[in-house]
## 1
Amino acid sequence: MALPPWLRAARAPLTIALIAAVLIWNLIFDLFLGQAERQYLWRKAVYALGEGHDVTLDGTIADGVRDGAWAASGWTLMVIASILLAAWLGYRAGRRAS
């Protein structure tokens, strides 16, 4: 059974979007977790100097996970939408040209 032309044309952009989504989400999420770890160490050092209040690793990482998941999801959605929009516009322009 042959695939419709629009589905054949969409396979490559969908594959690229899926791969980009996984990579971008993991990258952004990892950046936020790394920042949460650094913030924890910084706040612990400030507390040790008597300049701030005590923090827990669980609380700091929980904030990093929450913020990282939101940021990673937002950036991933924006990139996927851009890839799919470019593919759709290219497909439309190609159909008009032929």
## 2
Amino acid sequence: MTTRNVFTRWCVLCGAALMLAACSRLAWWRDKPSGAETAPAEETAAVEVEREGHEAALRRVVGNRITSAPTTPGNHYGKLIRRKPYFYKEYVVYPEGADSFELLITETESRTAPYIANVKLRKLRFATRFHPKKEDARNDDSYLRDTGAETLTYEYRNGKWTLLGSFFRVEKTEENINDEWVPLEKEVLRTVVSEEERKGWFGRAWSRLSGRK
């Protein structure tokens, strides 16, 4: 075999090796995007399944809260409450039932409380006026009715939803006169803390847990 033939044969072998290497590289790049796209999709699906489980658990918690409240007004439902230095009676009704509420779950950067949720629902609050003496409050059956929207704030911690607090925005206040609810025309000493103070407290709590300002 001549030197020329040996050189030609060597070139052919080198060319074949380069072609095989190129095909292998092309096949690797062709297959990789498919795998790269599948992994995030699977991760996203897993996160959605987890979120659905958390949401179902929270819906049960809220549903139990609603069903444990009276379904219709009744003065005998009122519970005596002390808010120093006063006493009063109060109870609530959720008029739209256990399935009528809005729910928003938000992920946080906290490992111990990875989710926080706001639940919005309609609410009727029946409360008497303030009384310095317990017996006066116990014997008072003249309730005022507040109608509005309540926001319940929950956090997911240690595998369960825990209520952080609530904010009730009153739209109207009525008093019962001759078995008819009519708008309250005069100012009275109320039984609850300032709504703006409540809003400020929960606003700070939400900012702390969610990292938002």
